Amino acid sequence: MKPESLLVATLASIFGILSLTGCKSGDGNTIKVGEFASLTGKEKTFGTSSHEGTELAFEEINKSGGVLGKQIELLTEDNQSKAGEPANIVNKLISRDGVVAILGEVASSRSLEAAPIAQEAKIPMISPASTNPKVTEVGDYIFRVCFIDPFQGTVMANFATNTLKSKNVAILTDAKSDYSKGLAKYFKEQFAKNGGVISSELDYNGSDKDFKAQLTTIKGAAPDAVFIPGYYTDVALIAIQAQEIGLSIPLFGGDGWESDNLLQVAGKAVEGHYFSTHCSPEDTSAKMTSFVAAYKAKYNKTPDAMAALGYDSAYVLAEAIKRAGTTEGPKLRDAIAATKDFEGVTGKFSLNEKRDAVKSAAILQIKDGKFKFLETIAP
Ligand code: PHE
Fold first, then answer.
1. How far, in Å, CA of 166 to CA of 226, rounded?
2. pTM for the full model?
């Protein structure tokens, strides 16, 4: 074959493949929804959980007939927990695949990267779990089905004051994470209002491996607890090294702690410590019980908060599409914004005028190597 004809043949087969796949998903018989998630890389349990919850919800919705007489087709892309990928992916999902809405991400920094693209394209985006206030401030097409960190920070400051009886707390923040910096700030504001003192404030860069210098400084300041608003991979190492240097005071943090991986890696080093999150699989509500059963049947494990939030984000979207009667961006946006008294697995919630969910937080403690539900805090 001449080089030219080889090129023609190659192009023809590429177009053949494209039109075949195009035919499968682009014939108007499905409603395409895009999802970006950290399925691999540093925070892989975040994306895996939220994706599984989302997938389970759409499977149920499709089984019961789909929406507007069509099946929902979920197009999921892995951002490998890496900065730069969310923007690429969301661009592709919107311009190449023509999705009508975007679901994602868990980590606030990754949601913040993608949100301006969805906003610009007028394609609604619902974050299942990003709690930094800036995420929905990007614009009126950006929503979330979780609470925000001014609330989470307040909950944990009150917990420190009232339950831990702390007067003097050290804070260890991930300087690379919008989530961590925000949560540290809101915690500090409320803890000061409660009359507490912050004895030392230190930071690290997510993915650091050695935290001994910071932990030694913290130990020197003699606080009665350490607030660590980080993600589980870093928290596991921090807890292990705190134990190694003999810093044996309560450690506590936010939803970023929630991963089975924290228990596996840190083992006894996290025993007795505390964090806030969105819900607990121990909740005995009918919604949670049937979700836990369906999730266990499909994935053979107990769902965490991200799985529950992924599930709720998918149902919020599907119900909004039904109410809107169309998938057209502006009308779908309005329908999502009108979400009120939604009965979710993570509790009953409404979206407020800032497109944030107003709902309770849960506090868990690590006991006997497991996450144990302690209390629910209403907004
Ligand atoms: N709230 C975290 C963030 O905004 C992500 C997260 C949500 C982590 C839920 C664990 C559980 O980055």
1. 10
2. 0.93
